[in-house]
Model the fold of this input.
Amino acid sequence: MAKVTIDGIEIDVPDGTTILQAARMIGPEVAPPTMCYHSKLKTSGGYCRTCLVEVTKGSEKDPRPMPKLVASCRTNVMDGMVVTNGLSEKVQDARAGVVEFLLLNHPLDCPICDQAGECHLQDLSYEHGHYNTRTDFERRTFEKIDIGDTIQLHMTRCILCYRCVKVAEQITDGRVHGVINRGDASEISTYIKEAIDNDFSGNMIDVCPVGALTDKTFRFKSRVWFTKPVDAHRDCDKCSGKVVLWYKGDDVLRVTGRKDQWGEVEEFICNTCRFDKKKTSDWTIEGVREISRHSVISANKYKKLVKPKRLTINDIKALPE
Amino acid sequence: MQRKLLLEHIDVPGIQTYDVYRSKGGYASVEKALKTMTPDAVTEEVKKSGLRGRGGAGFPTGMKWSFLAKPEGVPRYLVCNADESEPGTFKDRYLMEHIPHLLLEGMITASFALGAHTSYIYVRGEFFYIIRILEKAIAEAYKNGWLGKNIQGSGFDHDIYVHPGAGAYICGEETALLESLEGKRGNPRIKPPFPAVKGLYDCPTVVNNVETIAAVVPIVNNGGEAYAAIGIGKSTGTKLISASGHIKKPGVYEIELGVPVEEFIYSDAFCGGILNDKKLKAVVAGGSSVPILPAELILKTANGEPRLMTYESLADGGFATGTMLGSGGFIVMDESASIVHNLYTFTRFYHHESCGQCSPCREGTGWMEKILHKILDGHGSSTDIDLLWDIQRKIEGNTICPLGDAAAWPVASAIRHFRHEFEAYVNHPKQQHVVSYYDHCHNLATAEV
Done:
């Protein structure tokens, strides 16, 4: 066991736990945001740098602070380690920088993006980004590519988190896509534009933190906050069959895996469940899916509403430019 | 007179061939190590010598070797980093081109110390002709019994393979190099685990620069203490410096660490002074990624002491008034050079070479290049200079590998020491006389044709 202090809160965690996992054990108040880390995918994380934290005391044995900010998703805790996340100005500053870098080439097309409402980058930029933009250069753009008959890749929106690559590597038989080119010209591609054709390819959509990989059976059908999530399951010979059905009226518009409080898929599901079973009669309904009150998806769905504070003219004046 | 350890026989005709190299005392260190020393004794000599990594970071080599994990039944590897791509550095190319056997000799001796039976030389893709030189030298070494099974009857087996890169600067970063060597995309790995524990094919691996491995030869031949006697303090031995830019005699010089910078620039034994006897303006002392220093700070430290060519003296004053020895790419600029234009050239390089794995470097390097281009085009504003400063600050230290730092430091130092030049570009863009290091090299190249 190792004792670690994160933002002043102590917790005992098993050896080999990462700082991020320890912070998540304490709770969402101290957990750093993540874009590329995914708890169900091995070797994920370390690329986006949003989860940077400051280690002010290395361990009981070696109390020196770490010279640089470290990626909490890939750094293991040591006994006696002291970590600051939200309380460190250095971390907040670096994180705001990372958000700015991620948005530098990301299109501001949220109004027409299917991911809007459940997009990690939206949440991240809202919580950690700046109000204003400091760039007026043209953003890089790519052509949309159909990879398979059910998934569309819109590389312009990609933040290169490598999650879809890890999904293909770890839960499917053979990876046929990856990252080609380098630097800011890197792109996710199947190289010779091959189709990704396997039973679990749909999970790439679920793990994509932005709207780069979207479900073609759902594209432009509805905004996610107009649909109602319902837990359901069926007997499936390929996967656990535990899914969320997204209803609009009586129609199932899409089927996704269940995501935990960190927005990460709990159990991967197969393409048959995801794309082919879109009738209520295919499923055993379990009940309404709990959605965090802070998510836009929960808007107008629950009785206990928290009214937003009405802004006065003084509040508006106090807003940063 | 400066002692030469690596380039002692560089002028001997035919030193590239085995016979001449052997007649000049070549492969003596292998003989000595295999027949009279234990592997630990060789490592001990390297530790005593105080040899520091010549690739740029300056980490003590003996310590790096002693960190190598030695589990039973798992092979260990030595990898020679010959992916020399730092702008301004060309010492490894010179060494491999002219005395390839020195590198091979060092590889065999070092591998013996580490217990590695296979080693790789990862050569930069652009050095295709050097691959042929090395292959020829390796064939000669096999023929004469210095490689293969049971070397010189000692019972030690060793094989060396040459592996060409595909022309990526990032593959000079040791973990990216290992990925590339394994046949994967050359992306740096996230550390820990370090290569000394899990390197090539998940086995313990030591990655050393060409010059570092070559330096093992004189260390074993003359003893670690003799090597440590050269130099000052913790900067021991000799170092190859690639001198380029506005100097009378550009080229590769082997110096004893501790030579004053002023002597190095102006003495006839080295650079021979500034071209056309102009005024010195600035120096990039250790390859493009280290901070640039103006003339007054490179010749003397902030305390007024003369600056020496050592790891410590060049770093004196931290990044505020100091720089680094780095890989020894010594770029001199005279008063006609434009710092802004030169910085643009460097930044364009780092943008082109970023691997794209982590976001600050992937996006930030391109952003800095665009802003510098805008300033050079005469559309910049003074907020752009502050923005540049802020971007480099957010890249530095927040990336997976040191490429982010390497891209940020030149920008930071150029703004720190030459902010007035940026402001001149912003305020009076049309009056700026653009002569960059890049243009200078281009002119030289075309003039020779």
